[in-house]
Amino acid sequence: MNGQTKCPSIGSSWQPAAITDASDQKWYKPIISVNADSSGNRHVYKAFRFSRGLLGNYFRFLASHEFRMLKKVEPLNFTPDQASRPSDRSPTIHYRLIEGRPVKDIAAGNALPDNFFSQLFSDVKTLHQHGVAHMDLGNSGNILVSGRGGVPAIIDFGSAIPLSWLPSSVQSWACRKDILGVLKLWHRFDSESMPLFLQHYYQSNYRKNIYTPKRFLKALRRWVTGDAGSGDMSGLATVISVFFGLLVLVSFT
Question: Membrane-crossing residues (predicted)?
């Protein structure tokens, strides 16, 4: 491990402007608001609910992790920039808002810009060259069609991992997961523009990820109790699985 990534190749003052409705939101999800400063520049403000005790430590860790990932990709023109935190003791993070709409919404209106996914594919390779894998690019909500020129933008780096100093096999797996996430959306929303070799690669390699800690615990609970509900337990499983996953990954850095 020499610090280079080994990804596989396949060819001021805040004024609230908007806030998410937290009343029906799960307890482990951050509250996200959009704020405008005195100059009218808009920023995303993400705040977790707990700041003390074990949960406070955990959510501070999540905020710190996302902040570090955003700082690593800050020079790129398709990721959020101006990331900052009020203090290391606060489970919060804020960064510049990228104006745009989710790719799913644009695709529903048949209004995707030409070459959108080929540009996104190239951007993800650039992301990897800067030492970061996003790890959730198959989620269409994390890909925006920018309001400035209709170019791709990638958001939400809470699940991102640093590639540098990870074993080459882990680097390859993480990069491959990102690429397959892009190909999943490409195939779903604009398959006609997808090159044939990428279609073959996607169809040969994409598998729905069913073997996750969260889904395992959920299936086990259903088997034991016959209960398909219990959203709070599902949330707890998410917190536990994300915590231990990130703990293992950052131990390499």
Answer: 233-252
Q: What angle do CA 163, 249, 222 make, to 5 degrees?
A: 125
Residues 224 and 201 in one domain: no
β-strand 132-133 against 31-36: which pairing, if any? Answer: unpaired
Q: Provide the 8-state DSSP code for 84.
A: B
> How far separated are the first and last CA of the chain, in Å rounded?
11
In order, the DSSP letters of 106-150 are HHHTT-PPTTHHHHHHHHHHHHHHTTEE-S-TTSGGGEEEETTTT
pLDDT tens digits along 86-115: 887 889 999 999 999 999 999 999 999 999
- Going by pLDDT thresholds of 50, 70 and 90, the confidence category of residue 10 is confident
Residues 229, 191 within the same domain = no
Instruction: Name residues whose C-beta falls within 8 Å of residue 243's C-beta, 6 or more positions apart in sequence.
Output: 58, 61
Question: What's the domain range around 138?
Answer: 114-207
Cα–Cα distance, 160 to 142 (Å, whole number): 12
Do 41 and 80 touch, CB atoms closer than 8 A? no
Computed over its alpha carbons, how large is the radius of gyration of the chain?
19
pTM of the full predicted structure? 0.77
CATH of the domain at 89: 3.30.200.20
pLDDT band at 12 (very low <50, low <70, confident <90, very high): very low
**Number of domains the chain is built from:** 3
Contacts of 96 (CB under 8 A, 6+ apart): 41, 42, 43, 44, 80, 81, 82
Q: What is the pLDDT of residue 13?
A: 41
